[in-house]
Design goal:
The structure is a homodimer.
Chain A (H helix, E strand, L loop, with lengths): L3 E5 L12 H10 L5 E5 L1 H4 L2 H6 L7 E4 L2 E4 L1 H11 L8 H31 L6 H23 L11 H11 L11 H11 L2 H19 L1
Parallel strand pairs in A: 1-2
Antiparallel strand pairs in A: 1-3, 3-4
Helix pairs in contact in A: 1-4, 1-7, 1-9, 5-6, 5-7, 7-8
């Protein structure tokens, strides 16, 4: 039995691959593992059956036999530990790749999500014009630091790893902000991730869900 | 040679154990490993020597032989993988403990940091009174979900793990918000973590750094 992940029945991103199931789909495609998908509605995500899988009522979740996991970082790491292709075999390089996973989720993503939330929910507020540049600058600081570390390399630390997978999915959330255009090397890094065949397969799979929901 | 971590030369939290080196100190104390500390100034954190260890110019970093790591999640996981006491031996329970580490850092911490940043830097802004309740409610939502999952248990999933360590340090950042008082079981969970001898040793060690800096 392949593992089962959950995803939005009707994704608010309209199939642009911004929902967090994209990370897990991409990881499974990179390691060549099939998976099943169970679609959940926003209402169902807050019901006991789903909360038993994820106490915070979010997608994706991951079920494999008697294991149930939540948090994309943990799910991708679990997959990467059990299948080749997402973590280096050298112990130090492996620890550094995991550091990039945490950096993507705990250092890079918070200011990006905060900017995205403001752009979605505070656009009509009196303070929006004053706060927006502050939020953009926080993201710019991180993008500048990331650009400096990349230093023209293809990936963050040697070969493509789960760290790059997480970082690319986090950076893709900037798509409507215009900020990536200010850092062409970071934009090229994201494009490099998006060009991977495993990314394309994962993207097409989540897009197909949205297109089927739109037709029904 | 024990590993070397970095910490603030002069912590802005005045020794209350809110700086992120506390997580690494606590983890090392839990597994009984000695460590050295190198103190860095705010200016030094943005210099090339420190940026080589952490491209985002933050503390703590972790150096052990030819390995250099950043991100507290990655450092604590690295320690937990190499020494007993912070991760269950059962494979599924181990993956779930790691999920709680990511939940602490990627689901719980972002709204807590956002609230803390607003309380620090936006208190004088015209919008503070209107935004504050919104930020508080986002944290309340997560605290309620965490409380429901705890369900009166001592720890998040069986015995104390690296997941609890990260969650307790994240929740401690709420200390000046008053929100923990609204969730007595979560407050008791934090107090349970703080009562562990390893926490006390780590806390005292970082407090001693602040006290020495204050005297000099």
């Amino acid at each position: 039995m392949p593992p089962t992940i959950t995803a939005f029945e009707n994704s608010p991103d309209r199939g642009r691959g911004q929902a967090r199931d994209m990370r897990v789909r991409w990881a499974l495609e990179e390691v060549g593992q099939p998976y099943d998908v169970r679609l959940v509605s926003f209402a169902a995500m807050k019901q006991p059956a789903h909360l038993a899988l994820n106490p915070f009522g979010q997608i994706p979740t991951y079920e494999d036999g008697d294991l149930a996991l939540f948090e994309t970082g943990a799910i991708v790491l679990h997959i990467a530990e059990r299948h080749g292709g997402l973590l280096p075999t050298d112990a130090n390089a492996r620890s550094r790749a995991i550091a990039w996973m945490f950096a993507a989720l705990n250092t890079m993503e918070p200011p990006i999500v905060e900017l995205g939330m403001a752009m979605l929910f505070e656009r009509d507020k009196s303070w929006y014009a004053e706060r927006l540049p502050m939020l953009q600058d926080r993201v710019r600081t991180r993008l500048g630091e990331l650009s400096r570390r990349l230093g023209g390399a293809d990936w963050l630390d040697g070969a493509f790893s789960a760290g790059d997978l997480m970082m690319v999915t986090v950076l893709r959330r900037l798509n409507t902000s215009g900020l990536l255009d200010e850092y062409p090397d970071v934009a090229a890094y994201v494009a490099r991730g998006e060009a991977r065949p495993a990314f394309r397969r994962a993207f097409d799979a989540q897009l197909a869900v949205f297109q089927a929901a739109s037709r029904s």
